[in-house]
Amino acid sequence: MKTKAAVLWEVNAPWSVEEIELDAPGPNEVLVKLAASGLCHSDEHVVTGDLPFELPMVGGHEGAGVVQQVGANVSWLAPGDHVVFGFIPSCGRCVSCSTGHQNLCDLGAYLGSGKQISDQTSRHHASGKDLGIMCLLGTFAQHTVVHEASCIKIEKDVPLDRACLLGCGVVTGWGSSVYAAEVKPGDTVVVVGVGGIGANAIQGARIAGAKQIIAIDPIEFKREKAMEFGATHSANSMAEAVPLLQELTRGAMANKVVMTMGIGSGAVIHEAMALTAKGGRVVVTNIHPAMEFGASISLLDLTLMEKQLVGSLFGSGNPRSDIPKLLGLYREGQLDLDGLVTRTYTLNDINEGYRAMRDGENIRGVIKYD
Ligand SMILES: NC(=O)c1ccc[n+]([C@@H]2O[C@H](COP(=O)([O-])OP(=O)(O)OC[C@H]3O[C@@H](n4cnc5c(N)ncnc54)[C@H](O)[C@@H]3O)[C@@H](O)[C@H]2O)c1
Ligand SMILES: [Zn+2]
Ligand SMILES: [Zn+2]
Questions:
Q1: What is the pLDDT of residues 287-310, one digit of tens each?
Q2: Cα end-to-end distance, the chain, whole Å
Q3: Most exposed of 37, 164, 192, 320 (fewest Cβ within 10 Å)?
Q4: Same CATH fold assignment for domains 2-167+337-368 and 173-312
Q5: How far apart are CA 347 and CA 19, in angstroms?
Q6: How far apart are alpha carbons 324 and 326 in whole angstroms?
Q7: Active-site residue list
């Protein structure tokens, strides 16, 4: 069939919105009509080359839609089912999946090629070329074909233009605070960068019972929005936050610091560590450029103060249990998804959506399909 998609042909090029050819789903694959897709910063890292994924590629990894057709062997999904995509597939059988770390599923090894998990070929084609799909999904398209391991079936009562946010930003941010940072009641938490990920790190810290949540972002609109998600204080920069934290914590500093800047920087890790209390933890969720190997950090501080520096992928969560769980918190009014969507776009306007993200105008921009 023919469908419309945003394709990245080379690094530092705009998204090309064009008609593509989509094959029928093969065994263990599913054809989905997208309803909505969030504009996460991670696709921008592919554009700049910081995330060196194979091109050409259909972008997008934060999507939800309705199943149209299932391939052979797919026993648990049927046409009409609503699905959110996990940006890391989960097979349910590998060591990571079977020990409660679905975010580290072995099938994640296929992300770089963007080719189908089943047989490492493409179902998406344009101009005579095979196309990869971002995070094995390709949600910047009216339709896509993905492996069943990437699908999480959800109940039909939640609007899909809200549910799509659970495919990356919400679980990643919330889990960065709740699972990776292990925020405890009474903790002081710092969140550095208030985009789609940081806003949810703030919500996770709030729900986990943080006493104080300090949101750091150079953009005033972001600092204002942070207060709506549960931040108690804000600062322009990590440097500005030092005296604020000294005053708020009587010099003890923050128990947990969650890094959710647009582009990670090794040069600022020492600043994050300086905001952290003895025995505290810095969680690195933001993506650093693949070719950045250095970080500025006092390892004496790390040892003598027993500080921890940990990475977190997909909020260190389990998409198959966390996506339904967080939809439940939304239903009960405890998790704000509506406030995350600053603007909606058509697929044709995707480059404008990413300009707005780069200029810090959106918490999340979301593409809505017909
Ligand atoms: N680890 C994971 O599983 C995972 C998943 C999704 C996204 N990410 C990454 O998380 C990061 C955030 O993604 P997003 O979609 O929220 O991005 P975004 O662009 O929407 O938000 C980033 C925010 O950081 C702010 N910022 C930039 N420099 C800053 C600085 N020096 N100090 C404080 N704030 C600063 C920006 O003003 C912006 O508000 C990206 O690197 C993205 O690739 C990681
Ligand atoms: Zn993402
Ligand atoms: Zn697995």
A1: 999 999 999 999 999 999 999 999
A2: 17
A3: 320
A4: no
A5: 12
A6: 6
A7: 40, 42, 45, 61, 168
CB atoms within 10 A of CB 229: 25
Residue pLDDT, tens place only, 246-273: 999 999 999 999 999 999 999 999 999 9
Between the alpha carbon of residue 132 and those of residues 22, 59, 89, the distances in Å are 12, 9, 15
Half-sphere exposure of 10 (CA within 13 A, CB side): 1
2-167+337-368 has which fold? Answer: Quinone Oxidoreductase; Chain A, domain 1 (3.90.180)
Q: How far is the CA of 232 from the centre of ligand 2 (A)?
A: 26
Q: Classify domain 173-312 at the CATH topology level.
A: Rossmann fold (3.40.50)
* Mean pLDDT of the region 149-162: 98
- Which of 170, 287, 340 for mutating ligand 1's site (highest number of atoms within 8 Å of CB)? 287
Q: Is the pLDDT of residue 52 over 90?
A: yes
Q: Where are the domains of the chain?
A: 2-167+337-368, 173-312
DSSP character for 141?
Answer: B
Pocket probe mutation, ligand 1, options 37, 39, 40, max atoms within 8 Å of Cβ:
40
